[in-house]
TrEMBL record:
Classification via SMART domains: AAA
Protein name: AAA family ATPase
Native source species: Lentibacillus juripiscarius
The AAA+ ATPase domain, residue ranges: 51-279
SUPFAM superfamilies on file: P-loop containing nucleoside triphosphate hydrolases
Gene3D superfamilies associated with the record: P-loop containing nucleotide triphosphate hydrolases
Listed InterPro entries: AAA+_ATPase, ATPase_dyneun-rel_AAA, CbbQ/NirQ/NorQ/GpvN, P-loop_NTPase
Length: 291
């Protein structure tokens, strides 16, 4: 069975039709928690993964990249192993580690597989979050995993691992974010890149309705307007990307189901910012909308 055949029949048909304007996509993917801003993004991601290509989701922090990856995993009926990149990422974090164990009274050395090993051996998805946070010397270890070979030699066991059918890689990147480094060309060329913009308008409204604890339609509408204002301020360089995070907006909506919206915005959005001028700007936006 091909990877494409693992998709629901409805999704397979829609991808084959390649109709970006087909509203049926939204109904089929909503269960994954993320509806992309346009169906073209979904079609292209599904097509790439079905062909055995790696997908790199590129976008600002909090724009929904992880949710999109989870949605793709759900559509393919695949579980997903996660790698959270940082400057501390090493071979053990990717491949696994050796530890002492017991077989009866006998002490033995046992290998505990990591996310890359698990995903390859089980034929499932591997999600590499914030891939450009890792040290440049660490990621070349998995170059063979990301190209046509789909093979790696485990440095701890010397085992040659070839990915089982169904294995796929989705990675996410926040360009220009503090602590990130540019991806080298050899690594970047192993991915198909999909830009993930912030959700806005009706799509954001549906997400807040489905994913937050807030039920008041009027208040949800005001939060959608707030998000638009925050995104515009980020684009103008008045706020850092953190201020427009959809994740933070959902937190603010959840809190607003129990506390006044302005206080929720302060806790979930404004107080996360470092500069006083940014906090003041967010407070002003909240005051304008919520009085």
């Amino acid at each position: 069975m091909t990877v494409f055949a693992q998709l629901p029949e409805g999704i397979r048909q829609l991808v084959k039709e390649n109709r970006q304007d087909n509203p049926a996509f939204s109904d089929l993917v909503r269960g994954g928690g993320y509806v992309p801003p346009d169906n073209e993004m979904l079609i292209d991601a599904i097509t790439a993964l079905s062909m055995g290509k790696n997908v790199l989701l590129k976008g600002p922090t909090g724009s929904g990249k992880t949710r999109f990856a989870e949605t793709l995993s759900n559509l393919f009926n695949q579980s997903m192993f996660n790698v959270n990149c940082s400057v501390d990422l090493d071979a053990e974090s990717l491949m696994g580690f050796k530890t002492l164990a017991y077989e009866g009274d006998k002490q033995v050395i046992e290998f505990v597989p990591g996310p890359v090993t698990n995903a390859m051996k089980n034929g499932t998805f591997l999600y590499i979050d914030e891939i450009n946070m890792a040290k440049p010397e660490t990621l070349p270890l998995i170059n063979g995993v990301l190209d046509y070979r789909r093979t790696i030699t485990n440095p701890f066991t010397e085992e040659i691992i070839t990915a089982k059918h169904g294995f796929g890689v989705v990675a996410a990147i926040n360009e220009g974010y503090v602590g990130t480094v540019p991806l080298n060309e050899a690594l970047k060329n192993r991915f198909v890149v999909i830009d993930i913009p912030y959700l806005q308008g009706e799509q954001l409204k549906r997400l807040l309705q489905n994913e937050s604890r807030l039920n008041d339609e009027n208040t949800i509408g005001l939060f959608v307007r707030l998000s638009g204002d925050l995104i515009q301020a980020v684009a103008q360089g008045k706020l850092s990307e953190d201020a427009a995070s959809i994740r933070a907006l959902l937190d603010a909506c959840d809190l607003s189901s129990m506390v006044p919206p302005k206080r929720a915005i302060r806790r979930a959005i404004a107080d996360k910012l470092d500069e006083d001028r940014e906090k003041t700007l967010v407070h002003t936006m909240a005051e304008t909308l919520f009085g």
